[in-house]
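ok, trying the design again with the full structure, not the truncated one.
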Protein backbone atom coordinates (compact mmCIF):
# COMPACT_ATOMS: atom_id res chain seq x y z
CA UNK A 1 0.00 0.00 0.00
CA UNK A 2 1.09 3.56 -0.61
CA UNK A 3 1.77 5.80 2.36
CA UNK A 4 1.10 9.41 3.40
CA UNK A 5 -0.95 11.67 1.14
CA UNK A 6 -1.46 8.84 -1.34
CA UNK A 7 -2.79 6.46 1.28
CA UNK A 8 -6.41 5.45 0.96
CA UNK A 9 -8.79 6.18 3.81
CA UNK A 10 -12.29 4.77 3.63
CA UNK A 11 -13.22 7.16 6.42
CA UNK A 12 -12.30 10.14 4.21
CA UNK A 13 -14.38 8.75 1.35
CA UNK A 14 -17.30 8.33 3.72
CA UNK A 15 -16.90 11.89 5.05
CA UNK A 16 -16.69 13.23 1.49
CA UNK A 17 -19.89 11.53 0.28
CA UNK A 18 -21.67 12.55 3.51
CA UNK A 19 -20.58 16.12 2.84
CA UNK A 20 -22.07 16.09 -0.66
CA UNK A 21 -25.63 16.57 0.54
CA UNK A 22 -26.71 20.13 1.25
CA UNK A 23 -29.69 21.02 3.45
CA UNK A 24 -31.71 21.58 0.27
CA UNK A 25 -30.79 18.05 -0.85
CA UNK A 26 -28.50 19.38 -3.55
CA UNK A 27 -25.23 17.59 -4.35
CA UNK A 28 -22.08 19.64 -3.72
CA UNK A 29 -19.45 19.18 -6.41
CA UNK A 30 -16.26 19.61 -4.32
CA UNK A 31 -16.88 16.76 -1.85
CA UNK A 32 -18.18 14.64 -4.75
CA UNK A 33 -14.78 15.03 -6.44
CA UNK A 34 -12.97 14.46 -3.13
CA UNK A 35 -14.86 11.19 -2.72
CA UNK A 36 -13.76 10.11 -6.19
CA UNK A 37 -10.15 11.14 -5.54
CA UNK A 38 -10.16 8.95 -2.43
CA UNK A 39 -11.48 6.00 -4.43
CA UNK A 40 -8.85 6.54 -7.11
CA UNK A 41 -6.15 6.39 -4.38
CA UNK A 42 -7.50 3.00 -3.41
CA UNK A 43 -7.58 1.83 -7.01
CA UNK A 44 -3.96 2.92 -7.49
CA UNK A 45 -2.94 0.85 -4.49
CA UNK A 46 -4.27 -2.27 -6.22
CA UNK A 47 -1.61 -2.22 -8.92
CA UNK A 48 -0.70 -0.95 -12.38
CA UNK A 49 -3.24 -3.18 -14.11
CA UNK A 50 -5.94 -0.75 -12.93
CA UNK A 51 -4.16 2.37 -14.15
CA UNK A 52 -6.17 2.65 -17.40
CA UNK A 53 -9.28 2.87 -15.21
CA UNK A 54 -7.88 5.34 -12.70
CA UNK A 55 -6.47 7.53 -15.51
CA UNK A 56 -9.92 7.87 -17.03
CA UNK A 57 -11.44 8.72 -13.65
CA UNK A 58 -8.68 11.29 -12.98
CA UNK A 59 -9.21 12.91 -16.40
CA UNK A 60 -12.89 13.34 -15.62
CA UNK A 61 -12.24 14.65 -12.11
CA UNK A 62 -9.78 17.18 -13.55
CA UNK A 63 -12.23 18.41 -16.19
CA UNK A 64 -14.78 19.23 -13.50
CA UNK A 65 -12.10 20.69 -11.22
CA UNK A 66 -11.19 22.93 -14.13
CA UNK A 67 -14.72 24.38 -14.05
CA UNK A 68 -14.52 24.77 -10.27
CA UNK A 69 -11.29 26.77 -10.72
CA UNK A 70 -12.64 28.94 -13.55
CA UNK A 71 -14.37 32.34 -13.47
CA UNK A 72 -17.67 30.44 -13.46
CA UNK A 73 -16.77 28.45 -10.34
CA UNK A 74 -19.95 29.48 -8.48
CA UNK A 75 -22.09 27.95 -11.23
CA UNK A 76 -20.42 24.62 -10.53
CA UNK A 77 -20.96 24.64 -6.77
CA UNK A 78 -23.61 21.93 -6.94
CA UNK A 79 -24.64 19.43 -9.59
CA UNK A 80 -28.02 21.23 -9.71
CA UNK A 81 -26.46 24.64 -10.38
CA UNK A 82 -24.12 23.12 -13.00
CA UNK A 83 -27.03 21.53 -14.90
CA UNK A 84 -29.06 24.74 -14.76
CA UNK A 85 -26.11 26.90 -15.91
CA UNK A 86 -24.86 24.67 -18.71
CA UNK A 87 -28.33 23.94 -20.10
CA UNK A 88 -29.54 27.52 -20.03
CA UNK A 89 -26.37 28.69 -21.78
CA UNK A 90 -26.32 25.99 -24.47
CA UNK A 91 -23.09 24.50 -23.12
CA UNK A 92 -24.10 20.83 -23.44
CA UNK A 93 -23.90 18.71 -26.61
CA UNK A 94 -27.21 16.86 -26.42
CA UNK A 95 -27.12 14.64 -29.53
CA UNK A 96 -23.52 14.39 -30.65
CA UNK A 97 -20.19 15.43 -29.15
CA UNK A 98 -19.21 18.55 -31.07
CA UNK A 99 -18.91 22.09 -29.72
CA UNK A 100 -18.87 21.17 -26.03
CA UNK A 101 -17.27 17.73 -25.92
CA UNK A 102 -16.29 18.01 -22.27
CA UNK A 103 -19.28 19.71 -20.68
CA UNK A 104 -19.62 19.34 -16.92
CA UNK A 105 -22.93 17.52 -17.44
CA UNK A 106 -21.57 14.76 -19.74
CA UNK A 107 -18.37 14.39 -17.73
CA UNK A 108 -20.19 14.05 -14.43
CA UNK A 109 -22.62 11.59 -16.02
CA UNK A 110 -19.68 9.19 -16.56
CA UNK A 111 -18.75 9.38 -12.87
CA UNK A 112 -22.40 9.10 -11.93
CA UNK A 113 -22.71 5.82 -13.87
CA UNK A 114 -19.56 4.59 -12.14
CA UNK A 115 -21.14 5.50 -8.80
CA UNK A 116 -23.89 3.01 -9.60
CA UNK A 117 -21.23 0.35 -10.10
CA UNK A 118 -19.67 1.35 -6.76
CA UNK A 119 -23.01 1.11 -5.00
CA UNK A 120 -23.58 -2.44 -6.31
CA UNK A 121 -20.00 -3.46 -5.64
CA UNK A 122 -19.96 -2.25 -2.02
CA UNK A 123 -23.33 -3.83 -1.35
CA UNK A 124 -22.00 -7.06 -2.88
CA UNK A 125 -18.85 -6.94 -0.73
CA UNK A 126 -20.89 -6.33 2.39
CA UNK A 127 -23.37 -9.13 1.86
CA UNK A 128 -21.19 -11.80 0.21
CA UNK A 129 -19.95 -14.91 1.99
CA UNK A 130 -16.49 -14.71 3.56
CA UNK A 131 -14.92 -16.86 0.86
CA UNK A 132 -16.57 -14.97 -2.01
CA UNK A 133 -14.27 -13.80 -4.79
CA UNK A 134 -13.89 -10.03 -5.11
CA UNK A 135 -13.38 -10.47 -8.86
CA UNK A 136 -16.82 -12.09 -9.18
CA UNK A 137 -18.54 -9.43 -7.05
CA UNK A 138 -16.79 -6.76 -9.12
CA UNK A 139 -17.64 -8.24 -12.52
CA UNK A 140 -21.26 -8.91 -11.53
CA UNK A 141 -21.62 -5.28 -10.39
CA UNK A 142 -19.89 -4.03 -13.53
CA UNK A 143 -22.07 -6.13 -15.86
CA UNK A 144 -25.20 -4.86 -14.14
CA UNK A 145 -24.18 -1.20 -14.51
CA UNK A 146 -21.23 0.41 -16.30
CA UNK A 147 -20.67 -2.36 -18.83
CA UNK A 148 -23.88 -1.31 -20.61
CA UNK A 149 -22.13 1.92 -21.66
CA UNK A 150 -18.74 0.49 -22.63
CA UNK A 151 -17.57 -0.92 -25.95
CA UNK A 152 -16.37 -4.53 -26.20
CA UNK A 153 -12.67 -3.68 -25.90
CA UNK A 154 -13.12 -1.76 -22.62
CA UNK A 155 -15.34 -4.50 -21.20
CA UNK A 156 -12.70 -7.08 -22.06
CA UNK A 157 -9.86 -5.05 -20.50
CA UNK A 158 -11.96 -4.42 -17.37
CA UNK A 159 -12.70 -8.14 -16.98
CA UNK A 160 -8.99 -8.99 -17.25
CA UNK A 161 -8.16 -6.40 -14.58
CA UNK A 162 -10.86 -7.72 -12.24
CA UNK A 163 -9.12 -11.10 -12.14
CA UNK A 164 -6.18 -9.38 -10.42
CA UNK A 165 -8.32 -8.30 -7.46
CA UNK A 166 -7.25 -9.77 -4.11
CA UNK A 167 -9.57 -12.05 -2.13
CA UNK A 168 -12.39 -10.36 -0.26
CA UNK A 169 -10.72 -10.37 3.17
CA UNK A 170 -7.40 -8.96 1.87
CA UNK A 171 -9.42 -6.39 -0.05
CA UNK A 172 -11.26 -5.31 3.12
CA UNK A 173 -7.96 -5.18 5.06
CA UNK A 174 -6.51 -2.88 2.38
CA UNK A 175 -9.14 -0.34 3.32
CA UNK A 176 -7.08 0.59 6.41
CA UNK A 177 -10.09 0.67 8.69
CA UNK A 178 -9.09 -2.11 11.07
CA UNK A 179 -10.58 -5.56 11.14
CA UNK A 180 -12.71 -7.01 8.37
CA UNK A 181 -15.76 -6.48 10.62
CA UNK A 182 -14.86 -2.81 11.13
CA UNK A 183 -14.43 -2.34 7.38
CA UNK A 184 -17.84 -3.94 6.83
CA UNK A 185 -19.43 -1.66 9.42
CA UNK A 186 -17.94 1.39 7.74
CA UNK A 187 -19.18 0.25 4.35
CA UNK A 188 -22.61 -0.04 5.93
CA UNK A 189 -22.29 3.58 7.13
CA UNK A 190 -21.04 4.85 3.78
CA UNK A 191 -23.58 3.16 1.52
CA UNK A 192 -26.73 5.17 2.41
CA UNK A 193 -24.92 8.43 1.58
CA UNK A 194 -23.53 7.10 -1.69
CA UNK A 195 -27.02 5.79 -2.58
CA UNK A 196 -28.65 9.13 -1.75
CA UNK A 197 -26.14 11.07 -3.85
CA UNK A 198 -26.72 8.63 -6.71
CA UNK A 199 -30.50 8.85 -6.41
CA UNK A 200 -30.64 12.66 -6.36
CA UNK A 201 -28.31 12.92 -9.36
CA UNK A 202 -30.23 10.24 -11.26
CA UNK A 203 -33.54 12.07 -10.68
CA UNK A 204 -32.04 15.39 -11.73
CA UNK A 205 -30.55 13.97 -14.94
CA UNK A 206 -33.78 12.09 -15.72
CA UNK A 207 -35.84 15.24 -15.18
CA UNK A 208 -33.69 17.10 -17.74
CA UNK A 209 -33.40 14.09 -20.08
CA UNK A 210 -29.63 14.02 -19.70
CA UNK A 211 -29.11 10.34 -18.91
CA UNK A 212 -28.01 9.51 -22.46
CA UNK A 213 -25.61 12.40 -23.09
CA UNK A 214 -23.08 11.44 -25.79
C1 LIG B 1 -14.70 1.89 -0.71
C2 LIG B 1 -13.52 1.24 -1.25
C3 LIG B 1 -13.72 0.06 -2.09
C4 LIG B 1 -14.04 0.35 -3.46
C5 LIG B 1 -12.91 0.86 -4.22
C6 LIG B 1 -13.27 1.15 -5.60
C7 LIG B 1 -12.27 1.98 -6.24
C8 LIG B 1 -12.78 2.42 -7.57
C9 LIG B 1 -12.17 3.65 -7.99
C10 LIG B 1 -12.46 4.21 -9.13
C11 LIG B 1 -13.47 3.64 -10.06
C12 LIG B 1 -13.19 3.99 -11.43
C13 LIG B 1 -14.26 4.78 -12.06
C14 LIG B 1 -14.13 4.69 -13.52
C15 LIG B 1 -14.90 5.74 -14.22
C16 LIG B 1 -15.20 5.28 -15.59
C17 LIG B 1 -15.97 6.30 -16.34
C18 LIG B 1 -16.29 5.74 -17.73
O1 LIG B 1 -17.22 4.99 -17.85
N1 LIG B 1 -15.48 6.09 -18.72
C19 LIG B 1 -15.62 5.51 -20.05
C20 LIG B 1 -16.45 6.43 -20.92
O2 LIG B 1 -15.86 7.69 -20.99
P1 LIG B 1 -15.95 8.55 -22.33
O3 LIG B 1 -15.16 7.80 -23.36
O4 LIG B 1 -17.39 8.62 -22.69
O5 LIG B 1 -15.33 9.87 -21.99
C21 LIG B 1 -14.24 5.26 -20.62
O6 LIG B 1 -14.33 4.77 -21.92
C22 LIG B 1 -13.58 4.30 -19.69
C23 LIG B 1 -12.38 3.92 -19.72
C24 LIG B 1 -11.74 3.12 -18.61
C25 LIG B 1 -12.38 1.83 -18.22
C26 LIG B 1 -13.44 1.93 -17.18
C27 LIG B 1 -13.76 0.59 -16.58
C28 LIG B 1 -14.52 0.83 -15.31
C29 LIG B 1 -14.51 -0.31 -14.38
C30 LIG B 1 -14.98 0.14 -13.04
C31 LIG B 1 -14.59 -0.77 -12.01
C32 LIG B 1 -13.31 -0.42 -11.31
C33 LIG B 1 -12.71 -1.62 -10.65
C34 LIG B 1 -12.18 -1.34 -9.34
C35 LIG B 1 -11.85 -2.53 -8.59
C36 LIG B 1 -11.99 -2.38 -7.12
Amino acid sequence: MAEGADMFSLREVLVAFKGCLSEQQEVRVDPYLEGWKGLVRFLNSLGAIFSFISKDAVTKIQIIEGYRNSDQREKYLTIQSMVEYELSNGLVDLDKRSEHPDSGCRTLLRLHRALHWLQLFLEGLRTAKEDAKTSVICSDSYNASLANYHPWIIRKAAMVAFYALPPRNTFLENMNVGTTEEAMAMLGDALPFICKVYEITEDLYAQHKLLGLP
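Keeping the full-length input from now on. The chain is about 65% helix and 0% strand.
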